[in-house]
Amino acid sequence: MDRPFPLGQSTDAFWEAQQTNAEAADFIFYDHEFRYDTQRHVETAELSPGAKRHLEQVALRLEHVPFPVVIEANEHEAHPELSRARRQTIIEQLNRMGVTNADERVVVAPRWAEGRTAIEAEQTYYNILGGGFGGGAGRRFGGTGGSYR
Predict the structure, then answer these.
(1) pTM higher than 0.85 for the full model?
(2) What digits encode the pLDDT tens for the residues 75-119?
(3) Which residues contact residue 137 at a Cβ distance below 8 angstroms, ignoring those fewer than 6 apart?
(4) Is residue 100, in this structure, part of any structural domain at all?
(5) Which residues, listed in sequence order, are joined to residue 69 by a DSSP beta bridge?
(6) How far is residue 40's CA from residue 103's CA, in Å, rounded to a whole number?
(7) Pair (142, 70) in one structural domain
């Protein structure tokens, strides 16, 4: 007679993979973490203040994890020189913070997940409120047409 798996055994690998992916995402530097020059209307390789704090956190954790530091490539790799300059900025800053193998760990790659524009996100939000899960106003917990009555 087959015994059932211990509680959680069949889902543990899935959750561990999700946790690992989330942890790896901490090492991605997105396009918005680099300054935009409003006078010249160009993107730069200069880190924003928030990205500087992000980089400090990455530098502290980098020796303890196997993940690369990823610089988000700009869309369709339209400006490869900008991506190279951003990569070089991150490498120089990590070297300044004492990371010795930064050149080997920093890569330029496309973003992992497709993002949504603000307009798409707003449409999704209202589609869900408007009955995407079987209900209208009030959906799940009573209201008109909720799925849990």
Answers:
(1) no
(2) 766 788 999 999 999 999 999 999 999 999 999 998 766 666 777
(3) 129, 143, 144, 145
(4) yes
(5) 106
(6) 30
(7) no
Statement to judge: residues 106 and 130 lie in one domain: no
Residue 65 belongs to domain spanning: 10-115
The answer to whether residues 134 and 99 belong to one domain is: no
Q: Which pLDDT score is estimated for 146?
A: 47
Q: Are residues 80 and 129 in the same domain?
A: no
> Which CATH number do you get for residue 44?
3.30.1330
Beta-carbon contacts of residue 77 (< 8 Å; ≥ 6 apart): 83
pLDDT, mean of residues 125-149:
55
User: For residues 145 and 139, is the Cβ–Cβ distance under 8 A?
Assistant: yes
Q: In 3D, which of 146, 113, 119 has the Cα closest to residue 22?
A: 113
Instruction: For residue 148, list its beta bridge partners.
Output: 141
Between the CA of residue 109 and those of 12, 28, 74, 91, 131, what are the distances in Å?
29, 9, 9, 15, 37
- pLDDT for residue 28: 93
Nearest-angstrom CA–CA distance, 129 and 63? 44
Structural domains of the chain, count: 2
- Angle, alpha carbons 38-88-78 (nearest 5°): 55
Confidence of residue 136 (pLDDT cuts 50, 70, 90): very low
Q: Are residues 39 and 111 in the same domain?
A: yes
